């Protein structure tokens, strides 16, 4: 009865639970790992991504839920459920997902390893010579790094690290047979590779490091009886929502450093453990961390599937999994040899990554660092690549005496330490560095180069939806603009004055920004379409985003749908809106695209009585995007570039290879081409420049 009551309550809500929607998104990623048309390495890649996604989900989303539970705060989910019933629903769904993850690994992927040139084997499956190599590796490398940590009446409970594999070893000595068993923890060193690699003539063998340690565990427990050896892994709360300071004078660098330390001690929200663990150990762990069976995930094979990245990235297989950087030039840029400083004075350029390389942006920045006429560079940075060329260019610019202002967002989740380190390097080189803005997270992506050209100064602007990260630009779908148009230059200059100083401009001509105004401006654009529909005029909205979660905007979509506005939404991940519900959202269509590339671009189209308004930029339709982040959407002013952006939306709507159609109940169904229908795969079609020859597309 209780299960039916909860299900009915969820169905009655006009919104979809954010967290349950996210888990459905991870199922769409898992679907890629099940796709038999993909190579084994691509399938392993997607399976590893589902594992990384789930780690973050537990650290942040489940962690956030426990903030409410642990601190006695009330919370009602979009589904209408309070904290404890929702916890049960969420963890039940998570268990189902993990079961499906491992069914995919064990039944669909592992049988393909042997014929693909590799295998994952236990120590007992190795030859005698291979076991000798493993024994030597244990003695010389692993053993010196292992530190047993006993927990008993004389030793306190040790601090076990987040997301590290740990052995719980239950022991007893002869004289203590009547005494309580002792529990000792052995954490596997995080700086060693997960697999020990052995080259055979025809394949590469990957031996899990935990199995090597298990094989030799007696070396750590001499002259005592080992009762049981149990491998487990914990996930701690990594969400700081209730702890974040509202004090605008706070030293945010020190605050973030302090929070990075608390991440190591956060409450445990998940325990992954191998089958048939010691009952004694499980009681100790559950009591210690105040968790129950709902938090415990029993794994019957490789714990932590992120380990698969070692196989995927192996030099022998890497070329089979990762595409080379694109050399396709954007339609608005004639060649890669053009002088951008000259070309951009007369032309705007729309880049569509990864189909267009990020090279024009990086090369422009690198050239600006050396150019004697460049006076200054201003940039916002959210995430960077390893050995970033962007940072190198900014350092060079500072060394060459140019004014360099950089806003590093130190609250970029899981990249905080890297951004602090890179910001420190730039500061030491003489750059003006800002580490975030008060309680807001700076998520916008902007670059401005100020260059003296004769008697005047020209401002070169880059603004887009993606990070300044050369590595992810090969894997993420993003849109960005290069321009010297004075309308953009004025607005971006004003925007930098806001985020680096104390300025409040009255209005922008090409930008919509948050935390001031973005939600209301989007709502007004939606209402304008509703007004036109009520007048009998043609109307329509097409939006491509990562997530849709803000109630105020969703309610406006519902109202516009009732007014007769056709609304087409391409939402990759979380979607809390219910499409196709009678008398609520009958005119709303929602699809998700999940495939070879991560769909990261944001494009907003409003019909506007035939004079379409098209925006792109960094913002999704989320509460955090409107209220807790500094975001920017830019209006595409150039008519040719506007048609290019509309073409991107057009083909996204046509895609029938990577698309999932959302149903009213929040579930998704994979879209398949109808009989005789042309196959459209956007992750291939955008490499063809010829698709832009005819740009007169009707979206609505």
Automatic annotation (TrEMBL):
One Pfam entry name: PP_kinase_N
Essential cofactor(s): Mg(2+)
GO molecular function, one term: polyphosphate kinase activity
Catalytic activity, EC: 2.7.4.1
Catalytic activity, reaction form: [phosphate](n) + ATP = [phosphate](n+1) + ADP
Every Polyphosphate kinase C-terminal domain range: 340-504, 511-674
Enzyme active site: 443 (phosphohistidine intermediate)
Domain Polyphosphate kinase middle per the UniProt entry, residue ranges: 130-311
Modified how: An intermediate of this reaction is the autophosphorylated ppk in which a phosphate is covalently linked to a histidine residue through a N-P bond.
NCBIfam families membership: poly_P_kin, PRK05443.2-2
Function: Catalyzes the reversible transfer of the terminal phosphate of ATP to form a long-chain polyphosphate (polyP).
Protein name: Polyphosphate kinase
Organism: Pontibacter populi
Chain's gene name: ppk1
């Amino acid at each position: 009865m209780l299960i039916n009551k909860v299900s009915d309550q969820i169905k009655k809500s006009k919104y979809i639970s954010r967290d349950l929607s996210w888990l459905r998104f991870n199922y769409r990623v898992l679907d890629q790992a099940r796709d038999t048309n993909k190579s084994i390495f691509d399938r392993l890649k997607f399976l590893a991504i589902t594992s990384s996604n789930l780690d973050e989900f537990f650290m942040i989303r489940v962690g956030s839920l426990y903030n409410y539970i642990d601190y006695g705060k009330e919370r009602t989910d979009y589904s209408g459920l309070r904290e404890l019933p929702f916890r049960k629903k969420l963890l039940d769904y998570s268990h189902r997902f993990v079961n499906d993850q491992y069914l995919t690994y064990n039944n669909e992927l592992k049988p393909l390893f042997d014929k693909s040139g590799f295998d994952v084997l236990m120590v007992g499956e190795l030859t005698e010579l291979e076991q000798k190599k493993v024994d030597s590796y244990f003695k010389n490398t692993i053993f010196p790094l292992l530190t047993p940590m006993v927990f008993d009446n004389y030793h306190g409970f040790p601090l076990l690290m987040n997301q590290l594999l740990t052995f719980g070893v239950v022991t007893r000595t002869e004289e203590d047979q009547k005494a309580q068993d002792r529990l000792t923890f052995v954490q596997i060193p995080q700086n060693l590779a997960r697999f020990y690699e052995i080259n055979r003539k025809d394949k590469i063998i990957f031996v899990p490091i935990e199995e090597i340690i298990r094989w030799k565990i007696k070396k750590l427990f001499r002259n005592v009886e080992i009762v049981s050896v149990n491998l487990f892994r914990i996930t701690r709360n990594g969400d700081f929502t209730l702890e974040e300071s509202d004090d605008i004078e706070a030293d945010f660098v020190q605050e973030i450093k302090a929070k990075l330390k608390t991440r190591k001690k956060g409450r445990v929200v998940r325990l992954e453990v191998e089958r048939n663990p010691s009952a004694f150990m499980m009681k100790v762990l559950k009591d210690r961390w105040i968790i129950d069976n709902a938090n415990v995930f029993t794994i019957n094979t490789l714990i932590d599937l992120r380990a698969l990245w070692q196989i995927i990235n192996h030099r022998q297989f890497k070329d089979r999994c990762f595409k080379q950087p694109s050399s396709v030039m954007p339609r608005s840029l004639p060649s890669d040899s053009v002088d951008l400083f000259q070309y951009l004075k007369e032309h705007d350029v729309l880049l569509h990554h990864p189909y267009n390389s990020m090279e024009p942006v990086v090369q422009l920045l690198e050239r600006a660092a050396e150019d004697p006429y460049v006076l200054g560079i201003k940039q916002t940075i959210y995430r960077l690549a390893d050995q970033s060329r962007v940072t190198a260019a900014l350092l060079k610019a500072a060394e060459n005496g140019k004014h360099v202002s950089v806003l590093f967002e130190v609250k970029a989740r899981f990249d905080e330490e890297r951004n602090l380190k890179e910001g420190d390097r730039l500061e030491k080189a003489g750059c003006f560095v800002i580490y975030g803005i008060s309680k807001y997270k700076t998520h916008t992506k902007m670059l401005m180069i100020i260059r003296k050209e004769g008697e005047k100064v020209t401002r070169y602007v880059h603004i887009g939806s993606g990070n300044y990260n050369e590595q992810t630009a090969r894997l993420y779908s993003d849109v960005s603009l290069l321009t010297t148009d004075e309308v953009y230059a004025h607005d971006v200059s004003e925007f930098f004055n806001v985020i680096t100083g104390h300025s409040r401009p009255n209005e922008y001509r090409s930008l919509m920004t948050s935390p001031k105004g973005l939600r209301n401006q989007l709502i007004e654009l939606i209402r304008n379409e509703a007004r036109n529909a009520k007048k009998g005029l043609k109307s329509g909205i097409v939006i491509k985003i990562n997530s849709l979660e803000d109630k105020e905007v969703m309610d406006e979509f519902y109202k516009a749908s009732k007014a007769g506005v056709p609304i087409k939404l391409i939402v990759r991940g979380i979607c809390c809106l219910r499409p196709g519900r009678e008398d609520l959202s009958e005119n709303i269509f929602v699809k998700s695209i999940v495939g070879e590339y991560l769909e990261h671009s944001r494009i907003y189209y409003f019909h506007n009585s035939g004079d379409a308004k098209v925006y792109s930029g960094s913002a999704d339709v989320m509460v955090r995007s409107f209220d807790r982040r500094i975001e920017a959407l830019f209006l595409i002013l150039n008519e040719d570039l506007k048609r290019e952006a509309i073409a991107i939306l057009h083909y996204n709507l046509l895609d029938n290879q990577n698309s999932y159609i959302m149903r009213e109940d929040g579930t998704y169904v994979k879209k398949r081409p109808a009989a005789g229908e042309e196959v459209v795969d956007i992750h291939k079609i955008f490499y063809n420049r010829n698709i832009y020859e005819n740009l007169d597309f009707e979206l609505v």
